[in-house]
Amino acid sequence: MDPLTAVGLAGNIVQFVQFAADLIQTAVEIRRSSTGCTADVLTLDTLYQQLNNFNDELASGRSNASGYLNGQGSASNPGVISFRELSLLCKSDCEELLSVVDTLKGQCGPRKRWRSFRTALSILWKKDKIEELEKRLNRTQMTMTLHICTIASHAQESRMRQLEELQTESNRLQFNQSAKFDQIITTLDSLKQHIGTFKRQKQVGDALTAELAALEQQISKLSLSQDAVAEEQAILKSLSFTTRPIRHASIPRAYQKTFRWVYQSNGNTANSATSLAQWLKSGKGVFWVSGKPGSGKSTFMKFIADDPRTPPLLSRWSGSKKVIIASHYFWSAGTTMQKSQEGLLRTLLYEIFRQCPECISVCGNRRSGPGEEDESGILPPWTLPSLYQILRKAATYDTASTRICFFVDGLDEYDGNHGDLCKALTDLSKSPNIKFCLSSRPWNEFEQAFGDDPQRKLYMQDLTRNDILEYTRSRLYEHPRWLSLAPESSHGDWLVEEIEKRACGVFLWVFLATRLLRQGLTNRDSFSDIRRRLESVPVELEVFFRQILESVEPFYHGKMSTTLQMAIAAEEPLHVMAYDFHDQDYDDGDYVFHLPVAPYTPDEDRDLKERMVWWLNSRSRGLLEMNREFGTVTFLHRTVRDFLKTREMSDFLAHKVPSQFNLALCLLKVYAAMIKRTRFDEPFDRRGFGEYDKCYLLSLTTSALARTAEIGGSHPSSIIAYRILEELDRIIPMKCHPSCKVSIHLKAFLREQLIVGQHVDFLTWKLPRDPHYLSVCGPHIIFNILTNRDATDQPDSDRLWRSRGIEMLRLALESQNLELNSAIINDDLLLCWTPWSALIHHATFWRRGRNKLLEELFWGLLESDILSTMLHQGANIDSTVWAINRNYSTFTAYVNLAFELSSDTARDALYLRGLQEFLCAGATINPCSAVSLSHFLHQEFGHPIKIHSTIECFFDCLKNTNLRACNTELLAEVADMLLSTIDEPNAWYVEQVREAIEAAFPMEICNRFRTRYPEISWTRGRRRGKRRADTELDRGTVKSLRTRSTRSSRRM
Predict the structure, then answer these.
(1) Pick from 229, 222, 211: which is nearest to 158 by CA?
(2) 301 and 439 in contact (C-beta within 8 Å)?
(3) Cα-flanking dihedrals φ and ψ of residue 205, to 5°?
(4) pLDDT digit string (tens) for 280-292?
(5) Is-contact 234 191, C-beta < 8 A?
(6) Pairing state of beta strands 624-626 and 633-635?
(7) Distance between alpha carbon 174 and the CA centroid of its chain, in Å?
(8) Who's near 330: CB < 8 A, 6+ residues apart?
(9) What is the DSSP letter of 174?
(10) Per residue in 700-740, pLDDT tens?
(11) Other C-beta atoms within 10 Å of 608: how many?
């Protein structure tokens, strides 16, 4: 409800009341004709036009303000008519006055003249009615000030509430919009003062109109300002994604006193150590941080990007320009967005816009139309080209008033072509306002792209010796048992130096080794025991990992194996509840059916996390960790996951797995259980069939369906998997966020995903058991089974058809109660499509050699007997196909395609079999139905709408087309089959058919037609005035026609 529309309606009312009052009270001469009138004479025509304009404005104003009128506008103070009733009275008065003027125009002569409208009005109305109108107009003028003040107050309150909501959202996004909020607050204060002045002055007439216009302008300005803030927030939110901050949060913070060398410039520091600080101050392009796996690259990148000493260094590079720091951390074990270019660009743009809202203007209008949202009420999805384009614009915004430094970690964890990524980043870095600090493993692609300049690169393992020594001392010396174990400092120094030497610059190895040594200290090991522990630790990380796993108690080996396999196989890190569900599976294989459909309470969530920390440690010895903030479980380091995916470790885990364990079924249960117990706070918005904005519910559902597909229809566990999908189908509608924008029944959510994912095995099992299963998917379902787009879209050659779409459609037709002839809602109500007519339109909308995809769709439908099945189920052969140039029936659309078919014996027979199915369904060439429908549409809509008959399409084309490029044999057989439908040889349309056949085919073929259909009045002897010379048709055509004519006789 927007009070601004009510202010607009109030303006309409004030202007009308003032005009009507002046009209009745002022002695202005009026007359019927304007011929020869002076300037102070008002004509009835002009008066009628003015009143008609007021009537239209009052009608549109009431429509626009309907929300206010039915809400706050319907309330009133004692003794004061409500604004809603007032608007109705004014509309009624305007219509009455219009009626009066219209009557005067009709009854009075063209030269009739009155001293005033009141005099003219007295001819039709009694005196008391005129006085009643006059009093009502005066009363309206007196009460409008009160109503306008009320509306303005509502507007102020509404805008204040919206301001508070916008400020709350801005704080949540950490979005710097303070300047715009200050402007809005100033405008709100001004509006408040204006309302107070308005109340005190109680103006009427022109002054009231002027004040109202000023008030409307103020509210409109306020509305536009708040809309602009909301639009900025909408763009920022569209760039973010749920898992955006998770990788940054999961990277451990740099240990105290480590990495100080970056900012130190003393002479004892190696040159490569100071090169990064120098680059931050004055460098350009790309700086590359490289290092061995586990050497601390990600921790280092987080440290540099977040350290408060970095912005001052960059300020020396940016000079007077504002400096922006944005960072992104690729993660190979994370979600698709966390390891893609889209995720990178969206994160970087998010950080730019968050820190510099002015830059958002480079996005332009993200709506489908000026100031509009798309049909789902949300911004359209981002594409890679648009993201790159906007990032380049941001770099040159306002003649480059900003400079941007990007920190991008883990290029080797990017799930794509690394060479393309390097080129894209290098191209972006050529801007003088952008530079990149990148990190990756020392792979050849990155060495070649970024490793040429020694002043713009560093290798972590070469610079972290002192950091490792500092970390090792702290980890060992802070243990309460250390002082009693190593009273002599030389013992401790030796141990620390030995650890650093063995580590070879790999921080991860140091972390694992010191953890093992601290365990020995807790166990009261002697120094010699500690020394032997260190000597037993393998130098190679992979061997160390295996040793850690082998230290797990044998009792837990089975759960260790299944737990690690789950973590490896999951598309993205699983929430800790997943591992708890897996543990329940050991005691109850049907646990997923017994879980409540409700999220964890805060107490349950806290207890779960506390318990699972111990559970994970006992099963993985710390190689799996739980992020306490997000509750996700991840590998200690990427190298752990890489190691466990090797063939050797896959065999190691498989050897310890319990019998009857099925990883796909295990994960399916887990995903289903997570859907039941998760609170989905984010809305999911439907963009099309099976297409929703990316959200956690969709991600879990997609993962569950993927695991079902892995199980397969022939596996013994398939029935259990199908029962789980039925359970998901039942409970997902209960999990939808209240703000979700879906245009169909929520039951369709999973069913659409089944179609999109082409889960034929499940559909084969489910559809025969429930003949109404697909009914909730809407009238487009027949078409959506084949492709994502709507049936009413125009056909195109680049449409992607589902590889198993025809198979699914046949299954649906055989098992479901589908409506083939029900009308499909369309933007143009005149063009009424049905599922059947839409399918025929797309399947026949192709030309030989031009639209291969549509052509193959057509033959697929014929080969699988789809069209035949639909005809047998009652598909209406007279349903209209609304083509671009002409309209015709589905039967005519099928017949027309004969001109596009190349000569192919097998496909010719297939096409003719389909044509015979149409004829058996009652199709004929009688044009009466097309004529009748054309007449009906003309009567219904008031303008000619032509439906072309088969004679007008096929036979006219036959008459006027050079058949040398066509499959003449097939056309002759089609013409023969169509002639067999003629019931009355003397009907008026038979002459057109005869002319077309005699013009198209050679004499020999025409003679055959004469013999076969003697009741038709054929032209005797040789044809005269032939339109073209096709007499060179080979004899094979004639022979084929004889054979086919014999077959047709049998059919008759």
Answers:
(1) 222
(2) yes
(3) 65, -140
(4) 999 999 999 999 9
(5) no
(6) antiparallel
(7) 25
(8) 247, 338, 339, 344, 408, 409, 410, 411, 412, 413, 414
(9) T
(10) 999 999 999 999 877 788 999 999 999 999 999 888 765 55
(11) 19
